[in-house]
Design a protein that fits this description.
The protein is mostly helical. The protein is built from 7 helices and no strands.
Length: about 170
């Protein structure tokens, strides 16, 4: 939860992107504009998740993928435009790419839920369709990161299966 002065948002030209899960992008823009902020060590916010919420509905894999890919492409574009106007990020563009990486990693975390539902070639084809015309460096990064996560998930699933088989053999 955040408490932010309205004038701060207006003075720093912070705007919502208008895509699913744009709160992360909005927060990144806020933090990059703030001269100071305070972190309260107490939990004063309880995030309640509903199984029927838009975020958790991913029955239609293509629609889910489209919404996440759009958020990622629009989010990176919005962040790039926003941060390019900041003197600090003009001097330190490497830090801008750390923010891109954070956004991409967060998005891919949501995509991990569909790895088991969609064969790799079909998922790759769906992603390529969404990233047509996008920056090739961003597209390459997304694909390589997704494939690393997919391999890690497969290795973890195999290890769990091995451990379960070993436990059954002991009984």
């Amino acid at each position: 939860m955040q408490l932010i002065r309205r004038n701060f948002i207006i003075e720093n030209s912070i705007k919502a992107v208008g895509v699913i899960a744009d709160d992360m992008i909005f927060t990144m823009c806020e933090l990059c504009s703030a001269k100071k902020y305070v972190v309260v060590p107490n939990i004063i916010y309880h995030y309640r998740q509903r199984k029927d919420s838009l975020v958790h509905k991913n029955d239609d894999v293509a629609k889910f993928l489209t919404s996440r890919a759009t958020m990622l492409a629009e989010g990176v574009r919005h962040l790039d435009d926003f941060l390019s106007g900041r003197e600090f990020f003009q001097r330190r563009p490497d830090l801008k790419y750390l923010l891109f990486d954070t956004l991409i990693q967060d998005t891919l975390m949501y995509l991990a839920g569909i790895y088991a539902k969609v064969p790799a070639p079909q998922l790759d084809a769906m992603l390529r369709k969404e990233f047509v015309g996008e920056d090739s460096a961003l597209t390459s990064f997304v694909f390589s990161t997704m494939n690393v996560q997919r391999l890690q998930l497969i290795m973890a699933q195999r290890r769990i299966a091995e451990l379960e088989a070993a436990l059954k053999a002991r009984k």
